[in-house]
Amino acid sequence: MTWLEQLAVFGAGIAAGGINTIVGSGTLITFPVLLAFGLPPVTANVSNTIGLVPGSISGVHGYRRELAGQRERLLRFGTASLLGGITGAILLLTLPADAFKAIVPVLIIAALVLVVVQPRLSRWVKLRRENGDSPAPKHGGPILFVAIFATGIYGGYFGAAQGVLLMGLLGVFVHEDMQRLNGIKNVLAMLVNGVAAVIFIVIADVDWRAVLLIALGSIIGGQLGAKMGRRMPPTALRAVIVVVGLIAVVRLLMT
């Protein structure tokens, strides 16, 4: 990569770290950038996952106050995320590379749909709470555990909009302040990315220069997202994510 390309990857890491802390979908920024600079799709995905782990840790640290008193939830949901992340990472490394190229455009489009419908989903969750529907089981019950496990599989395999999906699930099944749920979301995404990263480091082909650039950028982005991200216009943020995601789909389909 040229110096300008390395700067672009670093900048994408900052954006992804901030977006992941606020809502999720940061992979839809960094993954297309790595593809554009010539990395093979699986290598780009693996390097991106490893690089975003420090940003996830940074985001969790930024939300540490919201995590107070949620130890039991974190242990329960974290177990599901870890198991799912391991499963997804193994699937990525065992399925043929052609399968990844065929599946990922579908996953990106699904992730973009989640990004677009998230405001409507959030409104539905709010109305559900205001209408006083029957209380959910403590910590969401077994259905939420299985759903978080399935989300972990998706996150370990690819992971774009994993945070959006987690926030939707937590908002529906757990009666709690949304900022506290966002703190949980950050921890779960960190666990999935972290366990997948460990597996990738041991087994997969990694572009360590891309990892370093994304890692440095995502650490900065994680702190910015935790402190100032709520001031960003959500519509503009979603528009950027959708545009970049569509570019990634076109790029994958043309290679």
From TrEMBL:
Membrane topology, from the record: Multi-pass membrane protein
Keywords, comma-separated and alphabetical: Cell membrane, Membrane, Transmembrane, Transmembrane helix, Transport
Transcription among keywords: no
Pfam families tied to this protein: TauE
Membrane-spanning ranges: 7-37, 74-95, 102-121, 141-174, 186-204, 210-229, 236-254
Compartment(s) of residence: Cell membrane
Family classification: Belongs to the 4-toluene sulfonate uptake permease (TSUP) (TC 2.A.102) family.
The protein's name in its UniProt record: Probable membrane transporter protein
Organism: Nocardia suismassiliense
Lineage: Bacteria, Bacillati, Actinomycetota, Actinomycetes, Mycobacteriales
